[in-house]
Amino acid sequence: MATILVTGASGFIAQQLVLDLLEEGHRVRGTVRSAAKGEALRRALAAHTERAAEIELVEADLEGDSGWREAVDGVDVVHHLASPFPMAVPRDPDELIRPARDGALRVLRAARETGVRRVVQTSSGAAVAYGVRGPLPERFTEDDWTDPTHTADCRPYVASKAIAERAAWDYVASEGQGIELTTVQPVAVLGPIRSAQVKTSVDIVARILGGKLPMLPDAGLQLVDVRDVSATHIAAMNDPATVGERYIVADGFRTLEDIARTLQNAYPDRRIPNRRMPDLLVRALALVSGDMKTIASELGKRRILASDKVRKLLGRDLIPSDDAILASAETLLQYEAV
Ligand code: NDP
Questions:
Q1: Pairing relation of β-strands 27-32 and 246-249?
Q2: pLDDT band for position 294 (cuts 50, 70, 90)
Q3: Ligand 1 centroid to 125 CA: how many Å?
């Protein structure tokens, strides 16, 4: 059994990964930003595992040096997931880019200094399929890279993920001294939440299910289940052939109307919006709302990322997007988070 570090252990994907690593019998250490968040995490995970009290917690912030060496020291593998993923779009992109990039470098530096070789980093589909000049390709693959300089097709979060992943590969190539890196590129992640604190990722399901979007813009997302993102991290850590590789994790594309239909079928008694918001209205609202600005930039677009490589790694198909939507809905209702 190995000792494994999960950075940003309080996050949505990280909570699933921590549970899966414990289930496999590993010892798990996690970084959190405060002791209070660590306690909340232990309490939340205690509902899912008898081993919650054993999780070792270290305080570390991506924006500071303190704690990273201690966090990494003595582990066999680092899964680096911590990165800012806020609902709001900041005015200054550096608010996201700095912690994402410098944090990834802090983790890699700590790994090199303490002799830890194996690192699996959650990047994002955001590092693959944005910053595109001209028409979108039919499919993006692991060979594609977001161009963060083309800001018309690259909001600050997207830039932060592309820049952080590039920085990690550059560091490993130039100064890594044998660090073995794999990166994972999930698209929009849904699936079961493990605590009521989970926010950004499942917000779209919470809003549609809660009837908080009166009309639905003609936009959509390629989706993936959080259990498959966790499984990819674990498969990557166990398979030396994944060193130096990227793995897109993506199932089907769903428009907001598709998501609403899936939810309405599962919850016929709820009033779920089904009317399309005219594009003109989305564009008008984009002038005053950051959320709508993001949606307006995606109107009518279909970014499709290929997932042949990860299916081969996992040796199976991915969990269907509709199951991921329904698992989010079911658990959001359980936690009264709708
Ligand atoms: P969450 O927001 O739930 O988790 C993000 C984690 O990063 C939290 O633990 C958060 O800590 C931590 N974090 C943020 N800023 C800092 C900081 N300055 N210092 C230390 N820790 C910090 O998001 P997800 O679980 O969804 O995302 C996890 C990873 O997956 C991220 O790298 C994200 O970019 C990536 N990803 C997510 C996708 C999605 O759809 N969910 C899709 C593709 C990639 P705290 O709890 O204290 O805020």
A1: unpaired
A2: confident
A3: 14
Is residue 32 within 8 A of residue 59, CB to CB? The reply is yes
The span from the CA of 331 to the CA of 194, in Å, is 8
Q: Give the H/E segment covering residue 1.
A: none
Question: Which ranges of the chain would DSSP assign to H, the alpha helix?
Answer: 12-23, 35-46, 68-72, 94-114, 156-174, 203-209, 226-238, 256-266, 279-286, 290-296, 308-314, 321-334
What is the pLDDT, as a whole number, of residue 266? Answer: 98
Best residue among 7, 31, 63, 85 to mutate for probing ligand 1's pocket (most ligand atoms within 8 Å of CB) is 85
Q: DSSP code of 62?
A: T
d(CA 60, CA 184): 22
User: What residue ranges define each of the domains in the chain, with the CATH number in brackets?
Assistant: 3-334 (3.40.50.720)
Asked whether the whole model's pTM tops 0.70, one would answer: yes
Number of H helices, E strands in the chain: 12, 10
Structure tokens at 333: 């209702």
Torsion angle in degrees (nearest 10) through CA of 95, 182, 328, 202: 10
Burial of 338 (0-12, 13-18, 19+ CB in 10 A): middle
Does ligand 1 lie within 6 Å of residue 38's CB atom?
Answer: no
Residue 158, token pair as written in the block: 């997207």
* 309 given a catalytic annotation: no
